Amino acid sequence: MFMTKTVLKNLLTKYATRLYPFQTRETFKDVKGELKIEIDKCVFCGVCKMRCPSQCIGVDKKGRSWEVDPFACVYCGICVDACPVKCLYQEGMYKAPVAEKHMVFHAQEEKADAPT
Amino acid sequence: MTRTVLPFGPQHPVLPEPLHLTLTIEDEIVKEAIPKLGYVHRGLEKLAEIRDHTQMIQIVERVCGICSTLHAMCYCQGIEALMNVEVPSRAKYLRVVWAEMHRIHSHLLWLGLFADAFGFESLFMQFWRIRERIMDLQEATSGNRVIVSVNVVGGVKRDINKETEKWILETLDKVAREVNQLKTTILDDFTVKQRTVGIGILSKEKAYELGAAGPTLRASGIAQDMRQTGYAAYPELDFSPVIETNGDSYARTVCRFNEIFQAIDLIRQAFAKMPEGELAVKPKGLPKGEVVSRVEQPRGEVLYYLKADGTKFLDRLRIRTPTFANIPPLLDMLPGCDLADVPILILTIDPCISCTER
Predict the structure, then answer these.
(1) Which of A49, A84, A107, B122 has its CA at a distance of 20 to 30 angstroms from the CA of residue B214?
(2) Domain that holds residue B161
(3) Is it the case that residue A116 has pLDDT exceeding 50?
(4) Is B126 touching A (CB cutoff 8 A)?
(5) pTM attached to this predicted model
């Protein structure tokens, strides 16, 4: 009986939920989403690898490559704060589900004018 | 009368997490309950040996999703005490804001689950719809919906600007209004009262003797709240513990319901008194010594024992969560109740099993 007013109000107002995935909400500013890297800026210092609490980042200084296991990443953003050259950033959206797990691998291309 | 032994859980529709009780029943009346825990043990305390003390903040946040920021806050306060770090005043107030937001969303979650447990599904959806507003606030202010990762040793990572503050206060007004509309439904409804009033009585003496914590303790008439010990900015805020005296399931519901309004009031006070200033100080050196840190979570008192020997890694980390303290009172409530009331009684202590087993 106490709910009658609420029930009537619910019938007359729009849905409380969204028709996801057809209708999505804009993400808030500075939301910690998927971890990305601007590989050209990276100096391969390995600070992100050391700080990561879930140890999901791999850095190869010799091979000039950086990799992350997006399924082990906990979206904490410690690496982003710690990065000395600010080449890491988090996108506003979480990673979409996939059928098979994989690593995300980035390697820096050798610059043409780099000393050999 | 013959006695029957009935296994309850670990998989049960009312339990989101695995808890097993071996119930001895006699004519549908519970005579004895023996708990069995350990289904979701993760060994988080052991991780302190291989993760350094700053990485442990992210790990203790994951002890429990519902009270993530309070775990981190308790841990950081412990480390700050070991390193003699004075947290900036603004950071203390911001910690209160996030902690109280957690309390609101946890209590709304619980009220929803509780309504669902006695078959009132539409009420469950009403509470969870209101809860979404708080989840949005958390996502917008901290960057994560559930694991609010804002605490660092020496302060907080994020700030709340004036514009966001206004939005938070407006949303809290809406939340207070909407929760108040449901007050008659959850507290005065005949069916709800039939299932809760006078059931699972925990007397004041027993609650004290068995070491109950949080709303379970306060619903039995003991005004004990860890926030009174004066951590963060709580000494400067005006509040007194919400207490009920009957000690039954209904009293525990009323206690949690009223704590939502208390938490909203505390956030308003915190914003009104919040000074400008820096967010964090950089700690120097490494932690050394031992300390006990206590914080009031939505479920009760959480206790962290930290022992550090001056290296990057902690020597020992011990976490005692409120559900662990509330299991003996639960075992005291169960004998004598109907089998049909067992799920509701388990829910009234607001169990968080992954917290308990860490």
Answers:
(1) B122
(2) 4-357
(3) no
(4) yes
(5) 0.88
